[in-house]
Recover the amino acids of this structure.
């Protein structure tokens, strides 16, 4: 018996399928028809995949046509870089929530280029300034997109 | 008829319509390149500008913009692994690995040239097929459309890995996409499903944040893990050299390009399906052109045929999509629905009048598609070296810009923070799917078509009960779906046997 990420993923999908069926039971026929018709085969297929995974059956052939993660990097380094990248992505999101889009864009670019990409001051400042001007000119002035202002600016009454 | 055809050409070549065509194409060029800025949405933004234009000026402006968006959307998909448009996702599957191998120029050359072939095919299809297509479109009811969706999903599921387990994962992934499309208020009874008390989810999940999260985030993470440029360690200046090779590839696999254009055109005329399906079905068809097991395994790792197929289909469906819109007033896609709105603004009523009284105007649309695509492909080819060399920029510098584009692209779907949350969630899901070998293409197709499939299923069941399953066309399409599902097994067995006999 072999429990790995793929098995856990099948388990999660099977659970989601079961939840959909249970929730659908409370809905009228016309609302529940499609979810039930889709969720039941999903549960069955996920269980089949789960069993195959637990038995340690490998995917036959060389896999499907989709992007593959690089395998030529030391797994420990790869894991560390993956976590750091996800942290930057989540950090960017939090910056947007707190400070709003325009300021977050400027700060994220500057911080990422300076500390993550380890670029020099000159290139960092030029790229940050140019992107900010492009962002402001195209999205705010020309396309008139209303960007989120951020919790802090709203709390301070600056917007 | 011929007079109207030439009159249509001269109509577009008059200086004012031609200037508007150039402006429209220029806007379309950038809309295609920037992720999240969709062709349909931009079309809607441009509608206010046509109030003072005549139909002869407004149509080249709008259609010139709309018809080149897919062409340049492929550029972003190939270079950065982010779909420039939701209809250029399939190009990523082989285009981005080509860029990673240092073949960005070749991939771009192939994508641009196949796009041009596709666009010309679609325009030709529009010009000649109106009388032929009419009975076909009208013969497809809800049950048949539902089966066409299932056929599309089966096509893409067969790409998900070889053997039974690969097909199982593909179908599971497609099913999961269907489930995600259920979020929001259902169309039949107005019941809220899986909204968890969030007003944002009432309208369901939007395609752009989902696609950007699912595709861009795993690619960004992988780029960071590799610590190199997208094109690995290939040096600056060597990438553009493959452009001619990419153009030659289009003609080397010319029949494949034409067949995929035909697939795109056929799907393009079916209302509601559009580029989301056309790109994947044509991709599936491209993989079936493999002659050996090794060739088949090369798909997804940078086979140029995986770029040619979707590239051609994306563009050919644009011309074909105009057929039901112009001839029957049935818009084939959301973009066409907006365009139809513009028709009414200009005082044009889609229907028989467009094929009689306004025939030369209808043909001017054909010429607009042809001319705008030729111009944009020529301009893109002119700057392709510079464009391709963007993949030699150090990954660490590119990552913040890719993330910025991804976040802005997602946010513009609803101008709501929820779009970013959806991107993050689907980014995580996409990463785990890639890590554990779950294919993402069937998920996207299931997600795009879920709502439509539900509507067709409900309409079929309420109108015909279970009897719709026995309709001849439904049974024929079902048999084709079964054959498509089984074909890879037979193909692989045949190829293995052939190789064994060669070795023996």
């Amino acid at each position: 018996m072999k429990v790995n990420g793929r098995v856990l993923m099948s388990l999660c999908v099977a659970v989601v399928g079961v939840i959909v069926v249970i929730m659908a039971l409370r809905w009228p026929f016309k609302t529940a028809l499609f979810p039930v018709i889709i969720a039941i085969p999903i549960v069955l297929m996920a269980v089949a995949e789960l069993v195959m995974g637990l038995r340690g059956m490998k995917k036959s052939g060389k896999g499907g046509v989709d992007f593959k993660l690089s395998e030529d990097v030391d797994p420990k380094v790869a894991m560390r870089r993956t976590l750091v990248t996800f942290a930057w992505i989540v950090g960017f999101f939090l910056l947007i929530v707190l400070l709003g889009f325009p300021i977050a864009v400027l700060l994220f670019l500057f911080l990422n280029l300076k500390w993550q990409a380890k670029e020099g001051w000159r290139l960092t400042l030029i790229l940050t300034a140019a992107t900010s001007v492009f962002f402001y000119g195209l999205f705010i002035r020309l396309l008139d997109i209303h960007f989120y202002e951020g919790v802090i600016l709203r709390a301070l009454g600056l917007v | 008829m011929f007079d109207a055809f030439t009159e249509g050409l001269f109509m577009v070549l008059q200086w004012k319509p031609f200037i508007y065509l150039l402006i429209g194409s220029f806007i379309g060029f950038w809309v295609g390149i920037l992720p999240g800025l969709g062709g349909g949405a931009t079309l809607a933004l441009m509608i206010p500008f046509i109030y003072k234009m005549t139909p002869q000026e407004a149509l080249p402006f709008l259609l010139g913009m709309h018809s080149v968006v897919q062409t340049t959307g492929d550029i972003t998909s190939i270079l950065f692994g982010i779909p420039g448009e939701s209809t250029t996702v399939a190009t990523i599957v082989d285009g981005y690995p080509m860029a990673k191998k240092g073949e960005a120029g070749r991939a771009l050359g192939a994508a641009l040239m196949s796009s041009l072939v596709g666009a010309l095919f679609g325009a030709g299809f529009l010009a000649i097929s109106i009388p032929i297509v009419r009975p076909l479109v009208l013969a497809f009811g809800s049950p048949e459309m539902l089966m066409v969706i299932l056929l599309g999903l089966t096509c893409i599921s067969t790409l998900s890995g070889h053997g039974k387990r690969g097909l199982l994962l593909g179908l599971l992934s497609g099913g999961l996409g269907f489930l995600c499309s259920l979020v929001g208020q259902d169309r039949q009874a107005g019941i809220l499903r899986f909204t968890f008390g969030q007003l944002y989810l009432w309208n369901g999940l939007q395609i752009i944040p989902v696609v950007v999260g699912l595709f861009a985030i795993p690619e960004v993470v992988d780029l960071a893990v590799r610590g190199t440029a997208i094109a690995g360690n290939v040096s600056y200046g060597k990438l553009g050299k493959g452009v001619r090779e990419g153009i030659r590839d289009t003609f080397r696999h010319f029949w494949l390009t034409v067949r995929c254009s035909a697939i795109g055109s056929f799907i393009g005329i079916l209302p509601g399906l559009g580029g989301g399906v056309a790109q994947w079905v044509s991709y599936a068809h491209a993989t079936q052109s493999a002659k050996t097991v090794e060739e088949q395994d090369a798909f997804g790792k940078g086979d140029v045929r995986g770029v040619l197929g979707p590239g051609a289909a994306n563009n050919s469906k644009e011309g074909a999509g105009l057929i039901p819109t112009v001839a029957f007033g049935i818009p084939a896609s959301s973009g066409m629905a907006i365009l139809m709105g513009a028709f009414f603004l200009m005082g044009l009523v889609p229907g028989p009048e467009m094929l009689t009284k306004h025939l030369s105007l209808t043909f001017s649309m054909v010429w607009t598609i042809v001319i705008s695509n030729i111009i944009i492909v020529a301009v893109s080819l002119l700057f392709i070296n510079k464009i391709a060399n963007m993949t030699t920029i150090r990954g660490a510098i590119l990552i913040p810009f890719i993330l910025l584009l991804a976040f802005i692209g997602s946010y513009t779907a609803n101008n709501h923070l929820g779009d970013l949350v959806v991107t993050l969630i689907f980014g995580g899901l996409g990463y785990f799917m890639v890590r554990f070998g779950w294919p993402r293409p069937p998920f996207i197709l299931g997600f795009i078509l879920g709502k439509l499939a539900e509507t067709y299923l409900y309409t079929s069941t309420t109108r015909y009960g279970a009897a719709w399953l026995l309709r001849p066309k439904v049974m024929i399409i079902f048999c084709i779906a079964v054959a498509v599902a089984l074909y890879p097994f037979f193909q692989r067995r045949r190829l293995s046997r052939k190789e064994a006999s060669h070795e023996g």
Summary: The mean pLDDT of chain B is 82. Residues 104-139 of chain B form the longest helix (36 residues). Chain B has one domain: 2-233+244-503.
